Amino acid sequence: MVKPYLWVSPCLEISLFPGHAVITRHNQGYTVRQCLLKDPTITMAMTVAELITGFEAWAPPAWQEKWDNCGWQIEPGICSEPAGVLVCLTPTLAVLEEAIALKQQGNPVNVIFAHHPLIFSPLKSVQMGDPVAEMVLVAIRNGIGVYSAHTNFDQVANGTADVLGQKLHLQDSTPVVPTQPEVGYGRVGNLSEPLLLGDLLIQIQTALSPPALLYSPEASLQQPVQRVAVLGGSGASYIEDVAKTGAQVYLTSDCKFHQFQAARDRGLILVDAGHYATERPACEKLATIFQTQGVDWVRLSDRDEDFRQFFPAVVS
Ligand SMILES: [Zn+2]
Asked: How far is the CA of 116 from the centre of ligand 1 (A)?
């Protein structure tokens, strides 16, 4: 069968998720990237295998942390099927039920593409009643796979941290903790012009719609700020690294009482917008990237959840 792809080498421009695959190799000290572009004269649906190959060339699972579990969580024999992707932050039974309902309505969904892994500890048994095991059983029964891109997606361009920086229009942002050239954890950059802290918090509130926004004690809303660091999800362990970048403000989530104290003691204004609000924008962007790259059916989950509630309820 003729595959609808052409190899080109090297890419003139490394963009979001160029072509359907980007292969990075090292040649005499230089990084050479090649990409696989779809031949526009041949129309053939991108398969699940091609989707995953392309994604993993862009954000290799080999970049993941030792404790992480990126890649297939459940693969019920769907790799040769045309890809139909439901993108979410966290793979839950609610998201799986959403996928099944969409499938029953005639939508060709067969992959839940999640940021958070479903399986962290190896399963010792698979029984109904256990939340993870139940998802495994229900997913296989319904022919729906679950794939996760976690700490590899945190580091890459257009991943969780990079997209959060884009939401604040950070200029010339670079990783807070580089792991390789232009790749790494967090992003730090400058606002296009100095803003009063109060105006920056309004901008964050508008861009991310968090149910609550916490910020450091003793920070004046009237003080001008320009250099800002961001890291989607739980980023308090990077406070020391962020302080070394010269950032005045650090937007992240899941910060504890004494971590606010530690940031205050380093002269860093810590802003906690919550885990969901700081990572969900990257899922939105990923769905757009998949669409741009030619996946026939892509949708962002409506059942993704922020697992916290606030009282009184926040009306958005
Ligand atoms: Zn997360």
From this structure: 6
For residue 32, the SS3 value is strand
pLDDT digits (tens, 9 = 90+) for 16-31: 343 444 444 443 333 4
Q: Are residues 188 and 107 in the same domain?
A: no
Query: Ligand 1 center to residue 234 CA distance, Å?
Result: 7
For position 192, which CATH number holds? Answer: 3.40.1390.30
What separation in Å is there between the alpha carbon of 63 and the centre of ligand 1? 16
Residue 104 belongs to domain spanning = 45-155
Q: What is the pTM of this model?
A: 0.86
Token pair, residue 73, equals 């969580």
Residue that the structure tokens 């906690």 belong to: 272
How far away, in angstroms, is 281 Cα from ligand 1 center?
12
Q: How far is CA 151 from the centre of its chain?
A: 9
Q: How far is the CA of 280 from the centre of ligand 1 (A)?
A: 9
